[in-house]
Design goal:
α8 packs across α11 (293-300). The protein has two domains: 7-221, P-loop containing nucleotide triphosphate hydrolases (Rossmann fold, 3-Layer(aba) Sandwich), CATH 3.40.50; 226-290, Alpha-Beta Plaits. It contains eleven helices and 13 strands. A hairpin with a 2-residue loop joins β8 (203-208) and β9 (211-216). Strands 5-6-7-3-8-9 form a six-stranded mixed beta sheet, with helices on both faces. Strands 11-12-10-13 form a four-stranded antiparallel beta sheet, with helices on one face. The protein is of the alpha/beta class and 306 residues long. The structure holds adenosine-5'-triphosphate. Adenosine-5'-triphosphate binds at residues 18, 23, 41, 43-49. Adenosine-5'-triphosphate (ATP) binds at residues 18, 23, 41, 43-49. GO terms for molecular function: ATP binding. This is ABC transporter ATP-binding protein. InterPro entries: AAA+_ATPase (IPR003593), ABC_transporter-like_ATP-bd (IPR003439), ABC_transporter-like_CS (IPR017871), ABC_transporter_ATP-binding (IPR050763), P-loop_NTPase (IPR027417). Its main location: membrane. It holds the Pfam family ABC_tran.
Length: 306
Amino acid sequence: MTTTTAPLIEVTGLRKTYAGRAVVDGVSFTVGEGEIFGILGPNGAGKTTTVECVEGLRAADEGRIRVAGLDPVRDHAQVTGILGAQLQESEIQPKLTVKEALELYSAFYPAPLDWRPLADRLRLTDKLGTRFAKLSGGQKQRLFIALALVGNPRVVVLDELTTGLDPRSRRDTWELIEEVRDTGVTVLLVTHFMEEAQRLCDRIAVIDQGRVAALDTPAGLISRAAGSTVISFTPSAPLDERALAGLPAVTSVDHKDGRTTLTGTDDTVTALLTLLARQHVTAHQLRVSDATLDDAFLDLTGAGQS
Ligand SMILES: Nc1ncnc2c1ncn2[C@@H]1O[C@H](COP(=O)(O)OP(=O)(O)OP(=O)(O)O)[C@@H](O)[C@H]1O
């Protein structure tokens, strides 16, 4: 779902410097109300610094940030009322029970949600009496989502929410995030996981070395990958190498173990089929697949993922 409503978050020319080094260097993006907006990038790219500036936890050196028209540093108290941030594990008392944590955090907000249905939706009801320290990783993450939502925010910031979860819990968490969005909450999501970004995000800013390397829908980013379509086959007879390299939009031609692999676009596939017919060559085990967000990410960040 891509929204066209007025932006709820506006970041323009954000710059943050530590010891003379710009770790965020001119980042700009807007997030529409109701959107799930992803921030994706290699380690140390400046993702957390960026979202912490949006939350008003760090002050920008340069640039302008607005959340629902408010300045997160100057208008911090008001922004806290409309922006729910995911807590870090260290911020919760280990002896606090789930119920106590939900009651305590709802007391911080002027118009909190009723935490009981929220706990129910996050499958925490049978854990209400359990101390934080005794929860599993997935249960803790669900509690973090509940605590980020209990203030009834318009926007929720989730930073590496599913890191450390097993695949099942990660998928459950994705469903929860989609449910949260379906209730009208805007989600700003920092993630390392391509599958997560591809599944959840309406749009993604790929941040590399403190700059926005690309900003697009997941499909838009994939179509920017150098070869967005991968074609492989075993030819029944050798093909003319120059004819292959000259196919429209082809970006690479490789031969290995009798198989030929081309990267290109849909146009390359169509032209290849014509070439094969003209040369009376049969393509055995022909496979055509789309590039993934992984391919796009590696292209956009110069394989900088660590
Ligand atoms: N308070 C600070 N003082 C000095 N340097 C900092 C500080 N906070 C962050 N940095 C540096 O800024 C850079 C960006 O950090 P940031 O945490 O924003 O990156 P990130 O993209 O979120 O990385 P990761 O995916 O590893 O969490 C890193 O090189 C980090 O070491």
